């Protein structure tokens, strides 16, 4: 039964994506909160250089040496960028943008020079070949497991242990690095630990989704979760959930349309993000627009009750306390005036008496609050 | 040598060289503003975001048509910039997250579209892959007119809004206070970054475009302090990198243009960071060295002056060991030699001792007094 599970090609493809997604989302949540999302971009590009150098030196395209090489390359990228920025000759953003393209370009050139005898080619570096992960298997406990699944499984365990064990420290270092340093929690070490693990995850995910789509898995699901919650644990859980959902839906859509599986999975993370950006309950654009509309209406209501109050029981009342006066005197458009009156009516601020708009007790209270006095 | 001349006289190579230099120059010129406004990584996001546009242009035109591909790239690039701005302004996500989201999602969509094109199996789908890494050799003579036109438009735009761009690049708050339409100007500058990307795609491809935008500007920044100088130098470095990269990749089989161009540009940056006059790392090190020597000289002079005052003897001869005790370390022979050669101290013998002694000359007293900031007192009383 287990053997059958690991021999099912669709299951293995989805499993590879899911493992990548979860590992990336665990680290990505912290990277997003720490403002390091673009370092992921730098790392995942320059890892190409590490992978090809290790291959040239040892002949391995995967395995522990590759993981080590990737970790070193990733950290090297970050250290070089930070050194360059510290020389104060270029700013940090330009420093990042100088280091990783150079390493990536060097990697691509090394690949094209040695292209005849590597299975690494430029396309797979960028895009990965998640559709073929089942071709390359390794025997684990007597069962043939795809290498990518085994590697990604191991990386996931490492990331999970890292996040769970150092949860408190990560939380503190992310939200208040100064306090973490004062309490002796070494936020600098944690910073590099996260980036090292990101590099390791990137190299493990490399075969499956390639260098650039990996960024989508690191950045987008946590950013989506961030729009929905202000609780760290919930953000991490939601990010993992979005990753898994993106992998599964992406796989089936890719089959349906006969397009790149990795690309479709990454695109689906973008779909979740777009939905959250539009419809998130508190932060979404729709919620913001509704809130702005309510605020505008309530403001009009205040202007309305103030206007009614000013003219109430005066000779001008018959002319002023009407819907027409709102249009002709306050220069509101007719729909705006109608909407304000309706809203004020709904809120029990005003009522219609003898064809005139009159204040209800709640409306009077509102006016008194505005003018800051109580005319008893 | 003749081989190179043969190569240069070839029509195709000339086209490629002119095109590559043109593309490099435009990217370099516009990149200068991106770097100054700390928008380097925006260039990275927008260039990745151009991929779906390239694919759409390809799908709509039904082949590799430069105009529609550029229009597509510009369209999705501009859309990405808008979404990026929306995310930063309307949510609590930080700029880097917004960049990462736009970059990776647009690129993923581009990859999906790329496979759509490949399954359609058009004759030009191979040409499309070159947009990932650039291929200067694919530049046609007719393309040169398009690129030249865009380059001219960019130059005219920069010249027309020179004062405004300068102000917005260096002091946004002041520009806003002066009543300049800052948001509109920033939008124009962002559009220009997108334009530079669209143009540069041919040469270096979407993945490495950011380097063509940043590297020439970062190198140029080291050589000059004026915006005008930086834009011109940046354009020149961009052109040199582009032409150099095109030449190398044209003469070596199987080498994509983009990575070569990027490595050349990065090399120019490294050299600039090292040797740029007044700013480069070597100059910094030399300046540190000079400052150190000046302080060391000053301490020796001050010590000799101190001994002279203590003994009320302007020509008081001090032994090297005495200086060592006073300074905490033996004064380097080179320091003493340099002071002596500048006529500030003089080597004298002080019998019955046989070791060399040193005394301040008149000039040395003047220098020591100037260094300590005190008036010269009791000079040469003996």
UniProtKB/TrEMBL annotation, chain A:
SUPFAM superfamilies hit by this protein: ABC transporter involved in vitamin B12 uptake, BtuC (SSF81345)
Protein family (similarity comment): Belongs to the ABC-3 integral membrane protein family.
Main localization category: membrane
Organism whose genome encodes this protein: Yoonia vestfoldensis SKA53
TM stretches of this protein: 12-32, 39-58, 64-85, 94-113, 133-166, 173-194, 200-220, 232-254, 266-287
Protein name: Zinc ABC transporter, permease protein
Cross-referenced InterPro entries: ABC_BtuC-like (IPR037294), ABC_TroCD (IPR001626)
UniProt membrane topology term: Multi-pass membrane protein
Cellular localisation: Cell membrane
Keywords for this protein: Cell membrane, Membrane, Transmembrane, Transmembrane helix, Transport
GO-annotated cellular components: ATP-binding cassette (ABC) transporter complex
UniProt xrefs under Pfam families: ABC-3 (PF00950)
A GO biological-process term: response to zinc ion
Automatic annotation (TrEMBL), chain B:
GO annotation (BP), single: cellular response to iron ion
Gene3D superfamilies linked: ABC transporter involved in vitamin B12 uptake, BtuC
UniProt-listed Pfam families: ABC-3 (PF00950)
Keywords: Cell membrane, Membrane, Transmembrane, Transmembrane helix, Transport
Keyword Cell wall biogenesis/degradation carried by entry: no
Topology in the lipid bilayer: Multi-pass membrane protein
InterPro entries listed in its UniProt record: ABC_BtuC-like (IPR037294), ABC_TroCD (IPR001626)
Main location: membrane
Domain of life: Bacteria
Transmembrane regions listed in the UniProt entry: 12-36, 45-63, 69-88, 97-117, 123-140, 145-162, 182-215, 227-248, 260-282
CDD domains noted in UniProt: TM_ABC_iron-siderophores_like
Gene Ontology CC terms, in alphabetical order: ATP-binding cassette (ABC) transporter complex
Entry's localization field: Cell membrane
Family: Belongs to the ABC-3 integral membrane protein family.
Name this protein carries in UniProt: Manganese ABC transporter (Membrane protein)
């Amino acid at each position: 039964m287990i053997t059958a599970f690991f021999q099912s090609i669709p299951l293995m493809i989805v499993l590879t994506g899911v493992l990548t997604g979860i590992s990336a989302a665990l680290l990505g949540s912290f990277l997003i909160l720490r403002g390091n999302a673009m370092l992921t971009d730098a790392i995942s590009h320059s890892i190409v250089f590490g992978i090809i150098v290790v291959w040239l030196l040892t002949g391995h395209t995967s395995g522990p040496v590759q993981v080590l090489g990737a970790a070193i390359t990733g950290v090297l990228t970050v250290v070089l960028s930070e050194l360059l920025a510290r020389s104060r000759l270029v700013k940090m953003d330009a420093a990042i943008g100088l280091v990783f393209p150079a390493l990536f370009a060097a990697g691509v050139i090394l690949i094209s020079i040695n292209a005849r005898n590597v299975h690494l080619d430029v396309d797979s570096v960028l895009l990965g070949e998640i559709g073929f992960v089942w071709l390359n298997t390794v025997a684990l406990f007597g069962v043939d497991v795809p290498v990518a699944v085994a590697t990604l499984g191991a990386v996931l365990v490492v990331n999970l242990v890292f996040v769970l064990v150092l949860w408190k420290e990560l939380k503190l270092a992310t939200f208040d690095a100064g306090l973490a340093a004062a309490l002796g929690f070494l936020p600098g070490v944690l910073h590099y630990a996260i980036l090292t693990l990101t590099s390791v995850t990137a190299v493990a995910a490399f075969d499956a989704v390639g260098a650039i789509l990996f960024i989508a898995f690191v950045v987008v699901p946590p950013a989506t979760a961030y729009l929905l919650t202000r609780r760290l644990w919930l953000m991490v859980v939601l990010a993992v959930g979005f990753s898994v959902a993106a992998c599964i839906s992406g796989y089936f859509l890719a089959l349906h349309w006969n397009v790149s599986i990795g690309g479709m999975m990454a695109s689906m993370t973008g779909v979740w993000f777009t939905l959250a950006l539009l419809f998130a309950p508190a932060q979404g654009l729709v919620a913001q627009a509704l809130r702005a509309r309510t605020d505008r209406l309530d403001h009009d209501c205040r202007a309305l009750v103030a206007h009614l109050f000013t003219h109430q029981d005066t000779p001008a009342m018959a002319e002023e306390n009407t819907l027409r006066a709102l249009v002709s005197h306050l220069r509101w458009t007719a729909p705006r005036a109608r909407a304000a009156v309706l809203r004020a009516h709904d809120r029990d601020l005003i009522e219609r008496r003898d064809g005139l708009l009159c204040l209800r007790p709640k409306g009077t209270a509102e006016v008194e609050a505005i003018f800051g006095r109580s005319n008893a | 040598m003749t081989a190179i001349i043969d190569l240069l006289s070839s029509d195709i190579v000339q086209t490629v060289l002119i095109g590559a230099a043109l593309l490099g120059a435009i990217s370099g010129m516009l990149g200068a503003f991106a770097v100054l406004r700390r928008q380097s990584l925006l260039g990275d996001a927008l260039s990745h975001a151009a991929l779906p546009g390239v694919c759409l242009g390809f799908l709509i035109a039904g082949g590799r048509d430069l105009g529609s591909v550029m229009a597509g790239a510009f369209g999705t690039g501009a859309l990405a910039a808008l979404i990026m701005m929306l995310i930063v302004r309307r949510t609590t996500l930080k700029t880097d997250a917004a960049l990462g989201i736009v970059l990776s999602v647009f690129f993923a969509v581009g990859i999906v579209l790329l496979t759509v094109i490949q399954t359609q199996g058009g004759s030009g789908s191979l040409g499309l892959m070159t947009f990932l890494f650039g291929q200067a050799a694919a530049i046609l003579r007719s393309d040169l007119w398009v690129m030249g036109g865009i380059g001219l438009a960019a130059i005219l735009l920069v010249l027309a809004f020179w004062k405004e761009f300068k102000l917005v690049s260096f002091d946004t708050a002041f520009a806003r206070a002066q009543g300049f339409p800052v948001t509109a100007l920033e939008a124009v500058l962002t559009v220009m970054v997108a334009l530079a990307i669209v143009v540069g795609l041919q040469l270096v491809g979407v993945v490495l475009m950011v380097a063509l935008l940043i590297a020439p500007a970062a190198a140029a920044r080291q050589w000059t302090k004026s915006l005008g100088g930086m834009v011109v130098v940046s354009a020149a470095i961009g052109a040199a990198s582009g032409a150099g990269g095109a030449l190398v990749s044209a003469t070596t089989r199987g080498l994509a243009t983009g990575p070569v161009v990027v490595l050349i540009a990065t090399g120019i940056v490294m050299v600039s960071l090292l040797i740029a006059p007044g700013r480069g790392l070597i100059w910094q090190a030399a300046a540190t060295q000079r400052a150190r020597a000046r302080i060391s000289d000053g301490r020796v002079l001050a010590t000799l002056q101190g001994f002279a005052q203590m003994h009320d003897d302007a020509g008081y001869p001090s032994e090297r060991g005495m200086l060592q005790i006073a300074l905490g370390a033996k004064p380097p022979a080179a320091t003493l030699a340099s002071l002596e050669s500048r006529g500030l101290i003089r080597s004298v013998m002080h019998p019955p001792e046989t070791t060399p002694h040193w005394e301040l000359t008149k000039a040395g007293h003047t220098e020591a007094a100037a260094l300590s900031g005190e008036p010269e007192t009791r000079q040469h009383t003996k």
